[in-house]
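[step 3/7] inverse_fold.run input=structure_tokens len=214
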């Protein structure tokens, strides 16, 4: 009799857990948490890693890259992913410390991601973001981040000489944002309330964001 009571309690607990797991918000958060578990498995590895092998040759790096792709892609063959229609376009620096899936807590490709050194907007990026808006994007997020190598280069005389195109883009960043906002389709959609363009600064260490007040 006592055993039966515990079986019922266990059954109720399992049913409650299953019910909670069916809640979309719970599934979303758990998916993000599992991605983080993946990072936890790999982050501390130094042996199986391209970055920390100072004496590794370019050919070895290439071979390793191809091997890792083959493994990862074979998983995707087995578990095909869903495709989404992005409503958000993000412009983010190419800095490898920033992970856009972690930044958004979302791995479902709900975002168009444009990555450039220093989060600069060149003519091509302006066109790409405009095209993304034409394809249905409702929010464009232009980001910068702390400890940015491109912004540091723009402040260093030797680097300014060595990377003139990059530092010019960093210098002109605010002006180029204004030009993007003034593009006819972009300006019209903003005026009609069909598009938001936001500027954020990413904390590189924590990936928290705050409004970019320049
Ligand atoms: Zn950067």
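[step 3/7] decode complete -> sequence:
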């Amino acid at each position: 009799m006592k055993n039966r009571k515990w079986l019922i309690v266990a059954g109720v607990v399992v049913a409650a857990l299953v019910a909670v797991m069916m809640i979309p918000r719970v599934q979303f958060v758990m998916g993000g948490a599992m991605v983080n578990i993946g990072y936890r498995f790999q982050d501390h590895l130094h042996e199986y890693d391209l970055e920390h092998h100072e004496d590794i040759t370019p050919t070895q790096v290439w071979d390793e890259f191809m091997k890792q792709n083959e493994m990862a892609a074979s998983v995707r063959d087995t578990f095909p992913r869903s495709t989404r229609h992005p409503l958000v376009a993000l412009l983010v620096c190419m800095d490898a410390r920033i992970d856009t899936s972690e930044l958004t807590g979302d791995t479902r490709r709900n975002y168009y991601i444009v990555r450039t050194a220093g989060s600069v907007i060149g003519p091509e990026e302006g066109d790409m973001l405009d095209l993304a808006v034409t394809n249905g994007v409702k929010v464009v997020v232009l980001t910068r981040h702390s400890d940015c190598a491109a912004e540091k280069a723009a402040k260093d005389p030797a680097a300014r000489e060595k990377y003139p195109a990059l530092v010019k883009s960093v210098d002109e960043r605010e002006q180029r944002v204004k030009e993007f906002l003034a593009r006819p389709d972009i300006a019209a959609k903003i005026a009609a309330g069909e598009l938001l363009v936001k500027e954020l600064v990413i904390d590189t260490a924590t990936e928290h964001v705050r409004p970019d007040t320049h």
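[step 4/7] annotate
The chain has a mean pLDDT of 88.
The chain has two domains: 2-78, 88-211.
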